[in-house]
Amino acid sequence: MIWLIFALLAALLTSLNTIFAKIGLRSINSNFATFFRTGIVIICAFVMCLITESLYEFPSLTLNNWIFLILSGLATGCSWICYFKALKMGDVNKVAPIDKSSFILTSILFLIFFFDDTTKGGNILTIIILIASLVLMFIGTLLMIDKKEKTVNTESRKWLFFAILSAVFASLVSFFVKLGLQGISSNLGTLIRSIIVFFFSFLIVITKKDYKDTTKIESKGWLFLSLSGLTTGGAWLFEYYALNIENSSPLAVNAIGKLAILLTMLFSFVFLKERFTKKSLLGLLLLTSGIILIIIFSL
Q1: Residue range 194-201: average pLDDT?
Q2: CA–CA separation, 71 and 76 (whole Å)
Q3: Terminal Cα distance for the chain, rounded
Q4: The dihedral formed by the CA atoms of 164, 165, 171 and 176, expressed in degrees to the nearest 10
Q5: How many Å apart are CA 100 and CA 136, to the nearest integer?
Q6: Which residues contact residue 32 at a Cβ distance below 8 angstroms, ignoring those fewer than 6 apart?
Q7: Of residues 225, 227, 272, 263, the one with CA closest to residue 91
């Protein structure tokens, strides 16, 4: 069950990444932030490939490996750009739950394409629990979206649009990663995916000229954005290890990653001084309950 440990470590680093990104984005364009932190992830992945000699596996990559790793990179890039825009506009305790709701669509994809692994060979009880869990997560996410401000203008609610887009793209990432890692090292998969995101974000930065104000970025912004990149690289590597281990449950790995929502909410309260309503706390309880149910019945 070592894949379980890797999945938990990935969840921890993911929660730290969200907080670091929120702090770093206060003085940095979100598109440039995606570009910069992906460069750090590439360095982390490349070092791991050197240590494990995974670079020698390049000639053995199949067409399917390339297709799905490229798709996972593109989906990651789109998700990050939307997520960073949402974080820049809205509170962490509102954006993060919507991002984690991507698990619902991911679960549906795993049910369709990895039915036996996901449902323990079609076990009826497992299927029922899975559906109940997804319903809990959906209701919990809705409760955590703040709708108390009736007079808010459309501009200030753009974070919701970008958060939803982030969740849609994120839902595809784990699915593409699972397909793309067939027969290759998880470290090499991380490197390839990171390179795709890097060039994708680079094109956006150059096209929109989002590099112009980088001289105005404070040292604190660079520091926390760098930490965000390091925690992202670590989270990816641990998640890839977990997904690539034989007999690991892709649904459980993905669900454990969503437990990062608990630490993210705690960190947003302690370090960012964000507050919660009773409704949002109830939503967090339902969302977490759904995640834990899936993990228990996927093990």
Answers
A1: 91
A2: 8
A3: 9
A4: 180
A5: 13
A6: 205, 210, 211, 214
A7: 272
pLDDT 10s digits, 103-112: 788 778 877 8
Question: How many degrees, rounded to 5, is the angle at CA 60 between CA 57 and CA 64?
Answer: 115
- Kindly tell me if the per-residue pLDDT of 120 is higher than 80: no
243: CB partners within 8 A, 6+ apart: 3, 174, 177, 178, 181, 186, 250, 253
Looking at residue 150, what is its pLDDT? 45
Number of compact structural domains in the chain = 1
Distance, in Å, from the CA atom of 76 to the CA atom of 190, rounded to the nearest integer, reads: 12
Please state the separation of Cα 100 from the chain's center in Å: 8
How many residues comprise the chain? 299
Residues sharing a CB contact under 8 Å with residue 200, sequence separation 6 or more, in sequence order:
73, 74, 77, 78
Alpha helices (runs of H) in the chain, residue ranges in sequence order: 2-24, 30-52, 63-89, 92-100, 102-113, 115-119, 124-144, 158-180, 186-208, 219-244, 250-258, 260-270, 278-298
Q: What is the pLDDT of residues 183-194, one digit of tens each?
A: 888 788 889 988
What single-letter amino acid sits at 104?
A: I
Q: Mind giving me the DSSP string for 33-64?
A: HHHHHHHHHHHHHHHHHHHHTGGGGGGG--HH
The residue segments making up the domain with residue 185 are 2-298
74, two tokens: 């593109």
